[in-house]
């Protein structure tokens, strides 16, 4: 490696260090920061984000990248070095359009907005959060203006989470899924309903937590390189593959939300831990996109964690922890209970058949907010109207409505679409793995997950950001992102569960 690449490697390493530091500050802010730390954390985050941005967009970095692009012209386009320079150049082009002062302002704004959201959610009062959200929306509109060439304004936000994907492509996926999922849901809610009373009985938080830890360990989560804590909204974050953190939460009225939240975030964590040291402190470190990332969380949460083979293995262990609540319940009865289809208010607790309807609602509201079709003040009414139209239920307060998700509070406009993209990809990956590992269900029935994890490691995790999201999916499954396998999966699964 010549001096150009050595110098570039050094610069990228420092940039990644700053990003990791910011991630840890954000983790601390959401997990264990005292109330009095809001201003200090906001200032620290603003400084770290600004320094990282200035370092990345500096003349030195630009000159090194220009030299590097010349030097990799003769290399194989799929070589690590060529891909690194390509990804770095793309990131650099986007970053240099955004002033450092804007990055600092945004960091401070979302820090304050997050804490206003926590208070507003606890009081179910959108008015507390509204002025902060208005500032976030204004910032997003300013951000879009840095990219005048985009076909639609929302493209600029979506690209930050799903590189290369356009709003029109997301809308096409939604168009394919929407009516068919509504039809499926209607056919299911008209059937005799599943008794899921067992899920809402009193359960000790610690015992469900411990059961979740047992499953995380079985999945392959490395506790020497990770930890789990509690937060207002479950999330996963990483300071490199050696320090991956997840959180969950407990609601006594929905006790198993803790468990499935744990499985979801574990999927994210396994991806980050699977990167290994190959891309450490380089711009190829991390997941290739949030859609691919969500495919991992949704795969482990749903395709594994809500499957019959999984509960045939783990239900006896759960029953042993909760003999009074689960006496006389069979694994199949519990499996049917955790897969009950019922229109509900909360996205993270929604069943697989209705989940994407929650996502579509949010994406539509984001696009409307960005385009000025609705105002921030309109959001609660617009939210409730779409919930009634799409899901068939209306929240009785802001906490279970417009305030239920953290994403807008921390500036993640453009993120929500990746949940549906992740659902779609998860089934494509699942089918591809089954194609080469036909005994996968039997392995899961025995509580063995090493084959599945190893397959995901080699097909998805170990590539980091080397390939574009569509390339990762195509290399792993032989096809581009396609909603049809997901629709077939839903239809097959729920027709069997509901017996028609």
How does this structure look, described?
It is a single chain. This protein is mostly helical and 500 residues long. It has two domains: 3-129; 167-498, Neurolysin, domain 3 (Orthogonal Bundle), CATH 1.10.1370.30. The protein is built from 21 helices and three strands. The chain has helices at residues 3-31, 38-56, 59-71, 80-95, 100-123, 126-145, 153-161, 167-189, 205-219, 256-273, 290-304, 308-321, 323-326, 331-338, 352-371, 379-390, 417-436, 440-445, 450-459, 469-477, 484-498, and strands at 226-230, 236-238, 244-248. The chain has a three-stranded mixed beta sheet with strand order 1-3-2, sandwiched between helices. Helix 12 crosses helix 14. It starts with a helix and ends with a helix. The model has no long low-confidence stretch (mean pLDDT 95).
Key descriptive features of the protein:
single chain; 500 residues; mainly alpha; Neurolysin, domain 3; 64% helix
N-end to C-end Cα span: 63 Å
Q: Strands of the largest sheet, in order across it?
A: 1-3-2
CATH architecture grouping of the largest domain: Orthogonal Bundle
Structural class: mainly alpha
- Overall geometry comes to globular
Radius of gyration: 23 Å
Number of helices: 21
Profile the largest sheet.
3 strands, mixed
CATH class of the largest domain: Mainly Alpha
Helix share, percent: 55-70%
Task: Give the overall average pLDDT.
Answer: 95
Total beta-strand segments: 3
CATH topology-level name of the largest domain: Neurolysin, domain 3
| Uncertain segments | none
Strand content: under 5%
Write down the domain tally. 2
**Topology order in helix (H) and strand (E) letters:** HHHHHHHHHEEEHHHHHHHHHHHH
